Amino acid sequence: MVIANPLLNFVVRGFQALFGIVVLGISVSLIRGHHVGSLPASLGFSAFVGGVTILGAAFGVAALFFSFLDGMVGLIIDAVVALINAAGGIVSAS
Question: Stretch 66-74: mean pLDDT, rounded?
């Protein structure tokens, strides 16, 4: 996501990182607390989604400092993170 204002970019990426940390933390605590039966695949995928979201936020902040992450590369990273998050929401809801 290309945002003209650097402060707004930090705020958006901060919220993205916060939500990724929450998803990763809840997923890991559910994985560690699961003792009966086999582990559902959706828990592992949710942890993966949280990790990818945190990495996407880090790349978004790094785009302010490295010009090669701006433009098309940043747009592709944001699109991949958005698709993985949408897939994670669909898998977790079903």
Answer: 82
